[in-house]
Amino acid sequence: MADVPSELSGESSAECSCDAWFGGRLTLVQPRRGHRVGSDAALLAAAAYFAEGRFADVGAGVGAVALAILSRRKPLTADLIEIDPGLARLAVDNAIHNGFGDCTRIRSLDICDARARREAGLAAEAADAVVTNPPFFEPGMVRVSPNEARAQAHVLTGSPSDGAPLVRWIRACLTILKPGGRFVMIHRPEALPSILAAAENRLGALALMPVHPRASVAAHRLLVSGVKGSKAPLGIAPALVLHEADGKLTPQADAIHRGEALIDWGA
Asked: Which of 148, 205, 263, 267 could in theory staple to 230 by disulfide, Cβ–Cβ 3.0 to 4.6 A?
């Protein structure tokens, strides 16, 4: 763990840590408390690979996923969308500190707020691709953390009258995605009904990849990929296993976490 750079404009250095991540390819300043960058970010970054254009990272946090993708593809540009202003400031700092300040735009807003999207210049159907790691839970499903940042990272907000929160989140993401653009997400397997409901008549060529902590354990994550407007059928990709029986990362998972390998969708 390195010292927090003195020029960072976000949270105070006492509240943040400066961590090497993605096999040392990136250095991320992030809050010591609350949601921390981890395996989900590495998996999402490895599942999303684009040759060119502008992509949006929705729920970007401190910028880990977007910066990991940019570290592999220099011609890409990115919009990082994060509702928490403090995390958005850190995303700005991390983009600059890692050399991606010129190819990123960070916007602090609620992706489900159409007016906020317009005012921030996020035009409909402008992104060539969208990646997202939404909060995994809906109000009432879990005990909410007293830490506001952690609660916001884990629990989707919104009124029940607005419909299922995850469905609204996914459809808002698809609003800014071009026809023919790719959507990639990580979530929990239990969210599959909401994912399919959100994708109906909007996403095709859906690919679902179960992610297992160990080979003998049920999947705890689900990677999702789809193409806006495609009519191609749904498919189940080969499962990804993260750990050996002794708890060590499998060679494939270790390479993914180090930024040395992409996820094979089996296509």
From this structure: 205
